[in-house]
Write a structure and sequence with these properties.
38% of the residues lie in helices and 17% in strands. By secondary structure, the chain is an alpha/beta fold. The longest helix has 17 residues. The protein has a single domain, classed as Alpha-Beta Barrel (TIM Barrel). The chain contains twelve helices and twelve strands. The strands form two sheets. The protein has an eight-stranded parallel barrel, surrounded by eight helices. Bound molecules: ligand PBG. The site of ligand PBG has 11 residues, from helix 6.
Length: 335
């Protein structure tokens, strides 16, 4: 048994021999992180010449559309394959139905048109969910005090078509409504967008780690301490994640996502091993903040903590990672 696992006994076998030098360690490495694994989420705001800091996310900015090309230039030069776009919608454009999500001139659409023109080889992911656009901060529309599934689907379809028409390559629904993948696939195909992809936030948990993001897009105040537990998953569950993924794949998802990332590496591994499909993880805002807060206190080393956290996703079987560290990690990887 032990022999078949390659486990000889000490002292004939000394596992430290493989770790002796940099070149042996490189040779023996089981996983590798590359720039090709990174998706960079960015925040877009209204106005001209605008850049604003996000208090809980040191080093992450919201930028206005006219500043986007400059903001993204380095990422493009480094070869980061794709961006994920998120809007910080001004409060006066929010309403109970998230109407702004279907406006062909909303922030995402304007950003998409600029980015496609300036960086035609860079992939664009469009997040589909109503929360950046609703005055109550929920991902869907509310009927009788409940985030209504089927009415929300219609809004998500309109939002996704709006993004596809503006050039978004991959629609990435983060709303956790049932049946959204089928509804989106059908609507995209009906309008001829057969090559617009679907990366589903399939296993998305009701998590405390989204806090800084909600500040970044201005949805936390709107949510007024409410939670998303009737649609996002219970952190206690893992079989349910497989069921969610199975549904989304059956409905036509091209790839799936697990979110948050670091506290859910077990889910990444199970999804990858069960379905053998491209599996992504979102290292969310709170995970970034947690590392950056420790770095700022001098408690951990920025580069090493960043790279170690990203390698964890590769070890868990992920094809790629949505991470606010994308540019800094790519710079390190390119040496
Ligand atoms: C919107 C959405 C959220 C995130 C991505 N898309 C927040 C939420 O569901 O409340 C979180 C990303 C992050 O925390 O970095 N549905």
């Amino acid at each position: 048994m032990t022999a078949s696992l390659g486990l000889g006994a000490f002292p004939n076998t000394r596992l430290r021999r493989n770790r002796l030098t940099p070149w042996t360690r490189r040779l023996m490495a089981e996983n590798a992180l590359s720039v090709d694994d990174l998706i960079w989420p960015i925040f877009i705001m209204e106005g001209e010449g605008q850049e604003s800091d996000i208090a809980a996310m040191p080093g992450v900015k919201r930028v206005s559309v006219d500043r986007l090309a400059a903001h993204v230039e380095a990422a493009a030069q480094l070869g980061i394959p794709a961006l994920a776009l998120f809007p910080a919608t001004p409060p006066d454009l929010k309403d109970a139905e998230g109407t702004e999500s279907a406006n062909p001139d909303n922030l995402i659409c304007r950003a998409s048109r600029v980015l496609k023109r300036e960086f035609p080889d860079m992939g664009l992911l469009g997040d589909v969910a109503l929360d950046p656009y609703t005055d109550h901060g929920h991902d869907g529309v509310i009927r009788d005090g409940y985030v209504a599934n089927d009415e929300t689907l219609e809004k998500l379809v309109a939002q996704a078509l709006n993004q596809a028409r503006a050039g978004i390559d991959i629609i990435s629904p983060s709303d956790m409504m049932d049946g959204r993948i089928a509804a989106l696939r059908q609507a995209l195909d009906a309008e001829g967008f057969i090559n617009v992809g679907l990366m589903s936030y399939a296993a998305k948990y009701a998590s405390a780690f989204y806090g800084p993001f909600r500040d970044a897009v201005g949805s936390s105040g709107a949510l007024r301490g409410g939670d998303k537990k009737t649609y996002q998953m219970d952190p206690a569950n893992t079989d349910e994640a497989l069921r969610e993924v199975a549904h989304d794949l059956a409905e036509g998802a091209d790839s799936v996502m697990v979110k948050p990332g670091m506290p859910y590496l077990d889910i990444c591994r199970r999804v990858h091993e069960t379905f053998h499909v491209p599996t992504f993880a979102y290292q969310v805002s709170g995970e970034y903040s947690m590392i950056m807060a420790s770095v700022e206190r001098g408690w951990i080393d920025h580069d090493r903590a960043m790279m170690e956290s990203l390698m964890g996703f590769k070890r868990a079987g992920c094809s790629g990672i949505l991470t606010y560290f994308a540019v800094k990690a790519a710079q390190l990887l390119r040496g």
